[in-house]
Amino acid sequence: MVKGFQWALALVGLVLGIMLAFQFRVTKEINKTEPIQRAQRVSAEVSQLKKDRDSLQARVGELRATLDQLPAGPRDSELKEELDMARVLAGVTELSGPGVEVTLNDSNISLKPGDNPNLYVLHDEDVLRVLNEIRAAGAEAISINGQRLLSNTEIRCTGPTIVLNKNKRLAPPYVITAIGNPDTLEGSIKMKGGVAETLQFWGIQVGVKKIPQVTVPPYSGGISFDYAKAAG
Amino acid sequence: MIMPKPPVRGEQSLKKSVYLSVVTVSLVFGLLIAFQFRTSSSISGGVPVDRFQELTIEKKQVELDNAHLEQEATDLAAKIDEARKGRSQASDVLGSELSKIRMYAGLTQLTGPGVEVIMENPPEKDGSPSFYSIRDEDILKVINDLRGAGAEAMSINGQRILSTSEIRLAGNHINVNLVRLSAPYRILAIGKPGTLKSSLEIKGGLVEYLSANGITVAVQEWEKINIPAYDGSLRFDYAKPVQRG
To answer: Which residues from A are below 8 Å from B141, CB to CB?
Structure first.
């Protein structure tokens, strides 16, 4: 009985060893598959480029600050004030002030068979409408998940994510940060029959939080026009 | 009483070792299965072809961003050098920086190739207005599609679209920059005319959807259009620049 048992054990050990060897080889081969390697390489390049972008962004910010601090004549303080205002609109500076944080997330309603799941997820239209209400309530600067909104920022739904500012991809939950009068901003979203109510009908989660001090980052990239030229 | 004990003990220790080895074997076996499962699910979930495409597009975009930032940094550095030469140069430099930023902000009239989109409500039938009229959402979507197609500057009925502009239904009118506009709505956008036009006229796109509701949408390409500057008041009561360093 003991001998038979030992044989069985030896057999199991053998099979186990073979399986382990196979497993090891399979895992190694997957990492070596050409498309995955390719994707990994590009992915590494992209993260390096993003690091470069961040440092360039910081350098541009420093240069702007240096320019602002240069000695100027009495008329120039007016110019600087104008410059500050234009920069707020252009979205090239980091801003802070009182405001709100609006959080949007997909529906938490559990679907019944036959329900169209598409009705219960967040669409680009929904985000557009929330942003529009916030703008109508006098928001001075807005960002979503750290992406500053410019005059030509598009919002596009692609599957479960949203793409904006030319291929910058965001995943839910979406956090919209806006600087402005916190009460007015909150009211514009929570108003009776307003955006929040409509979205909540589909179970989409809308949260509004008034915050005494929020920060909105600058546009993460350089602005440049290829087609538009100053007129006159 | 004493005799039967040793064999029992031997049997017990044998059983124990059997149990132990069975436990070890099943443990290793379970781990293996788990690994195997994870590996194969990562194979099926990780179809890398479209991911690769996504990454490539992202890479190209970040490269473009970096090139623009580089350009901006060079420009600013040159301006700083110039400004260090003296007061009059410094104020010239400030002036030129201001006009550049005003252009991005929407405070300068711009000119360039682009499209003109005219949206009109359905005609009245027997004196009663049509059931469907243009809503703020319709215009929002048109503007959003044009932005997605690379529009650099836009206006509606002479109102420049800023980063803070709302497009909001107010009765029968639509407010943009707190100015009341009424139909027909004339949207101007500067960018690549063909791309802008096709983004709206694509099959299943906005022109198809709006026409199905009786709204007339005409998209016209132009070699040169002028987009007016924002001429309203500018006030920022809440946002303050963050000082670094």
So the answer is: 125, 128
